[in-house]
Each structure stands twice: as structure tokens, then as C-alpha cells.
TrEMBL record:
Pfam families: AAA_33 (PF13671)
UniProt superkingdom: Bacteria
GO molecular function: kinase activity
SUPFAM superfamilies in the record: P-loop containing nucleoside triphosphate hydrolases
Name of the featured protein: Kinase
InterPro entries with a match to the protein in the record: P-loop_NTPase
Protein source organism: Nocardia aurantiaca
Any coiled-coil regions, as ranges: none
Keyword terms: Kinase, Transferase
Length: 166
């Protein structure tokens, strides 16, 4: 039984950390994390644009995991306009799909970024260009994660939700 987990939100909100921590709660080889940044920036070195190859590659990697009945976590900014159609196709392809969206103010994302190990990777000015606020998906009931959720609460909720549908 395949489970798709989508974790979306602005830069530095905690998506990657949550995805990796959830993955660690499963046996080796049972959970595949597909990070948008790794596919786009490292594997392809492409800008984030509509119709870019990284969108297609993200989908192919995620489908690989779904066909093998893995828990597949797709995480990233995943702008609704550029990634929504692909996420809708993945949602339809999964036996179960769980969607989470970080809904944080720009000030909160900057505060989290400054405290992170990646603080030197990009500046608040760069983050301001990427920030787009919450963009709900029309086809999914996303669990909204706001600033009141701590890291443990986020991971516990996602893990518990996965176990409930498996």
C-alpha cells in the first residue's frame, strides 16, 4: 500500500527537517524522501520555473517509490502554480495521500532560518523574493502547520497520520 506525504511551505519553515525526521522513524528502505531542492538545485541545477524538467523528475522519483509501496515524502516550497498539477497526479496515483502546508509569516521564516545550520546558504533578502505566503491546493485537504507547532509536534502528527492509513 503506497502512501504519499506532501510537505509544502516557504523557505526555512522546517519542511526538510520534518521530512528527514519522519523518515528516520521507519525501517531502512521503507520511506523515500524526495526533496525539491535536491532535485532542482543539485541534480539538475535548474531555476524554478513552470514546466521545468525538475517538476517531471520529482514526479518520476515519487512514482518510483509509490509503485514499490513505500512511504513517499515529497517536500519543498512546491509553489501551487508550478507544482500543483504534478502533485494532483501523484495524489491520484497513491493509495493514500496526506498533505501538510507550513503557514508561517515571513518574519517567522527568517527567524527560523537565522537559527538553522543553513543560515549562511542564503540571505533574508533572497528569502523575500521566494516568499509567497500560503497557497492552498484546490484538490487536497492540507493540514495547516502554523508557528504554534513545534518540531516534535509536527513529526509526531505526520508519523501518526501515516501509521493510521497504512
Amino acid at each position: 500500500m503506497s502512501v504519499l506525504v506532501v510537505i509544502r511551505g516557504n523557505s526555512a519553515s522546517g519542511k526538510s527537517t520534518a521530512a528527514r525526521t519522519v523518515q528516520q522513524r521507519f525501517a531502512h528502505g521503507a520511506c523515500l524522501v524526495v526533496p525539491q531542492d535536491v532535485v532542482r538545485r543539485q541534480m539538475l541545477r535548474k531555476p524554478d520555473a513552470a514546466g521545468a524538467a525538475n517538476v517531471e523528475l520529482l514526479e518520476h522519483i515519487a512514482r518510483f517509490g509509490l509503485t514499490r509501496s513505500l512511504v513517499v515524502i515529497v517536500e519543498g516550497i512546491l509553489h501551487a502554480g508550478r507544482y500543483g498539477s504534478m502533485l494532483e497526479r501523484l495524489t491520484a496515483a497513491a493509495d493514500h495521500a496526506l498533505h501538510y502546508c507550513f503557514d508561517l509569516t515571513f518574519e517567522e521564516t527568517v527567524t527560523r532560518h537565522i537559527a538553522s545550520s543553513r543560515a549562511a546558504d542564503f540571505t533574508p533578502e533572497q528569502m523575500a523574493r521566494w516568499y509567497h505566503g500560503r497557497q492552498p491546493l484546490s484538490f487536497a485537504d492540507e493540514t495547516r502547520i502554523d508557528a504554534s507547532w513545534g518540531p516534535d509536534m509536527i513529526v509526531d502528527r505526520i508519523h501518526r497520520d501515516i501509521l493510521a492509513v497504512r
